[in-house]
Records
---
Amino acid sequence: MKTLKAEIVLNCQNQHGEGVFWNPQDNCIWWTDINGYQLWQYNPITGLNKSRTMPDRVCCFAPRRSGGFIVAFAQSVVLLDNIDATEGEWTTICEFEAHNVNTRTNDGRTDRMGRFIVGGMNEVTAEYDSSVICIDKNLKVKTLIEGVSCANSICFSPDGETFYFADTLENNIQTYDYDQKMATISNRRVLTSFENEPGIPDGSCVDSEGYIWNAEWNGHRVVRISPNGKLDTIVEVPVLNPTCCSFGGPNLDTLYITTSRLMMDDEMIHREPNSGGLFAVKPGVKGISDKPFLD
């Protein structure tokens, strides 16, 4: 078992950093501070960092091939031609579970064909009444999974044939066969249990060797998991709540990790003042760039 240590890159003090990804179109790491209503951008070459205030909570998002972003606000999924667009300047694809006032979007990522897969959560009662949806290039929406409490860990194997997913309250990472032509899932099984882990599964990404990297909420760490479910590497993160991770940098050889201050009191933050910051580590393997949304 290899153990690494993540270092602070940007002490941005996010309330709830999440949804991190590398955007090769501008050579920047992007992520959202959901509860802070901010989108963040960091260029590891120039050191540029910038945040933008958004009109609603952005829970996850992805770049588009045509420019701009596809954005999952808490209650809707929209197309932004310009990241600084106002509400009248974006195209709404769908409302997310408008029938249920307790749910919102949570975790999402594009598949290897460029569809946007986004899952929700019940942030009020933790009931299993949310879902995971798929949005294709024609902006058609279909449901992949129903009966979800807190969708996380959405990512895909390098060949795109395997879909990884966690309903965090179930405390495991699941895997499905993924039909890329039809965007359908089948053959659900548990990849690995987090029963003996210090934290619970949050956001994930996949490296070029097909291993899954998962941020452990409440666990002070990110773990690397083999395609057969074995723990391979531990990345120690010096704050309580890692939330999501993504490979970035020009060579895709740096693992970036977002973190959160949610449910931490003043004393806890005093002990861990970098909570809510962006961390990074060079783990000795490279990642894979996500496909931009193909609209």
Note: The radius of gyration is 17 Å.
---
Amino acid sequence: MIGVKTIPSNLRAFSAAQLAACTLGPAGGAVEGSLLVVETLGEPGSIRTLEERSGREVALYRGDRFVAVLASRHSGTSEYGDVPPRLAPPDAPALELLARAGVVGRGRCLPPARAALGFTRVKVLGVPLRDGRALQLRDLCPTPSSAPAGAPAVPTVLVAGSASEVGKTTACTALIRALKRRGCIVGAAKLTGTGRLRDVLAMHDAGADRVHDFPELGLATTYTAAAPVIDAAHAMLGLLDASGCQLVVAELGGDLLEANADRLLADPVLAQRTRAVVHVAGDVVGIVGALPLYRDLGVRAEVQPTLPHGRNALGSVERLRAFGLSALDVADDAACDAYVARVLERGDA
């Protein structure tokens, strides 16, 4: 039996019972999406907790063992790292923890605020084997082709932004709550970024009737090739279409240029169902500067900026007015109600 402290949330389809039925094999080639059993080396650094499959944050200590998934993360605001060329000695150094949801890889850069802490380093103890075969995340999840076909596409509001941690999930929850106040059946999805159960739970808490994200379809992050990310997005939206939702709120994690968000915005299938785009930025420059990017990516739906969180509201409103723009205050229920009413009036939702 393989003994570990926890199984993180990006491996939510992998239970303790399934792990108990596995044997531990030697690590070999570094394959994106591979499951690994790892142990922390020294005291934790920049990431000091893991998000469990339940969503609970679990503190990490020296020598803790857990199941991880090998993947890249090229975040502009958080840990940045890649899949290394090999895992087996003598070429393989220790790996680094790249995300609280259990993503590990070769750490390359930390943001200045956490650089002094260093990465949380782990050593690979081996790989879980099932019937003699090393497990990958996609082995635990349905393939994108499993999404139901034939259901009519549900109108979708995309929520994107200028950076991570600027309030995109908060905007999603505000829109979901406004739609629920109108009695709508609401679907929600996290289409790109670094998987985190926290965002899924927030959408559920806001009242979304059904929520999907990409780890359910075998992607630990979307910092990978574009094709599987687009396939997974189509699959998630297809599942929501078939569930009877009347409108979908879908978040693109990270910024417009990372994690394949730009490829999804340019995707003609997604464009056809997109009724509006809500753009979240930390300041007015992040709004004005992003609008040409949407046009360059072929987005034809109306782009609605939100009021930058934590900024002087009047200053932001007046600066945007100079460009002929207005901002949605997602903290104002009445404003959100009026906005979703306008979106719903654009067609039969």
Note: The chain is about 25% helix and 25% strand.
---
Amino acid sequence: MLAASENQNANGMPRVLVAGCGDVGQRVARRMHALGSRVHGLRRSARPLPEGVIALRANLSDPASLLMLPPGIDQLVYLPTPDTRTPEAYRRVFLDGLRNLLAVLDTSRLQRIVFVSSSAVYGDHAGNWVDEDTPPMPMGFNGSLLLEAEQWLASSGLPATVLRLAGLYGPGRESLYARIRDGRARAPLRPTFWANRIHAEDAAAAIVHLLGLPDPAPLYLGVDNTPLPLAELYDFLAACLGAPAVPEGDAPHGIGNKRLSNARLRDSGFAPLWPDARDGYAALLARRQG
């Protein structure tokens, strides 16, 4: 039998496994550690993790590498990143990897799984409002495979909650700035094409919030309070960057036009730090330029 100190934190806080410690995963790990949890961060690379987070080097696609995982995990956050943008890579990570991981964990101990998915599962809705009750109709393999993983997890009987994130922005995500500054960005004017965003720190905060709810719903949308016309958002960023207004052009390929609602997440008690992406981007750019 394992000693009590091996099964749980001395302070009674849960033992958390963050499977996928990229940008958002590290933000989640840092927050959970600050709350007193014993946090394990799983990633393929040997790059260091935030202070206090126990690093686990493993590959979700390699079941043998997962045999060294610690016992007694109470909460699982699943948010890996495929190494390439191909159907095969997405299937390896989000379906096979999830099955491999759950096969080696003691699922009888798991109190909560948060599976981080994407609003890509919704596809196009002609600019109309979308919420958790809107039927998904993915346009690409990424949304289709994420939806398949969601459905498999829901059928497992495990205590799982899915968080479908909108487009992420935050420190280090600067390719859009370069496209606007170089005149390569385009945005449609008619019909209005809607941009849905969430700051990376708010995405991490939402995940931690869901881990702490006593009885979360099976599904939430992770997005800020303010869908924006894409042309309006791009022109705002161009002004902040001192760049010319963004020319009219085609809508982004494969995303779909929709306005995402975070009403269910807000009703659960969550409030984003950056409810409007214009304020979040402005703060990022001010810090970057200062």
Note: Residues 1-7 have pLDDT under 50 and may be disordered.
---
Amino acid sequence: MKKQVLIFLVLFFSLFNQVLYAAEQVAESSSLLPDVPQIIGGYDAPVAYPWMTAILSSSVSDLFQAQYCGGVLIASNWVLTAGHCTEGKVAGDIQVAVGVYDLSNWNGTRINVKRIVRHPAYSSFLLQNDLALLELSSASVQQPITIFFGASVQNIDPKLLNQLSTLIGWGVYDLPATYPSTLQQINLPVVADSYCNSTYGVTLLSSQLCAGYAAAANKDACSGDSGSPLMLMVDGQWVHVGLVSYGADCATSNGNYGVYTRSSAYVDFIKQYVPAAKFTAGATPLPITTNSKALPWLMLLLHKN
């Protein structure tokens, strides 16, 4: 049966328990769960994203049953995921499948994890600094995703407020607890922190962002989506802007605003271990020439573009 459990995040300053997306990590022997692994309100992703990574329990041979979190390839031998997806695990407990689209129909190679590098300030209680790096034992040939640096040629607001982001993953897509085998996709707006603050009785950090819709909108990440990427089209390419951290119990609220780890807040941490990772760049001003006879065709090309 599909490996899943619901872990409750107890917030000492909140009146209610909230169920985490980390739910899928534990209770690997449960026989009470359906035997199928989507995002609530989502749809089949139109393409297989080469950087999308299924985080797998290495002890489970069936890929569909083994998947319990998501992640992204950020260099040939490094995967970025949520810190809570690695909690209580050693490198040998985890494998990854990179570029997979259908968990029930994939002939690629499962790659072993060589090392887990969880953020040193990760908090399992409040899920702060909720990200981790997985060093792979062998390189993947798939294309890594670029990480949003907080700057771009388009001069997008670094806070990403009101941007319509795209979430992909294999988490629950229908209630009660029905999982897909094919990768799911949904568009979620980045909203003001106050929406998540009031929903969960917290104060979001600058390293977190709030995205999604109010309860009962039936559009949300859910169990199985932890660590999965929140993406945005920036400067003509998909970039990683956040990863699924925690939220409300999607099974009872039918979706709600979710809290995501903001990847641009961890550029220095990522660069420390993954110097080959790619990041967006800020606008580069065009050179100014004072020689009107030099390159007379240059202004024509600029106007045409």
Note: Residues 193-200 form the longest helix (8 residues).
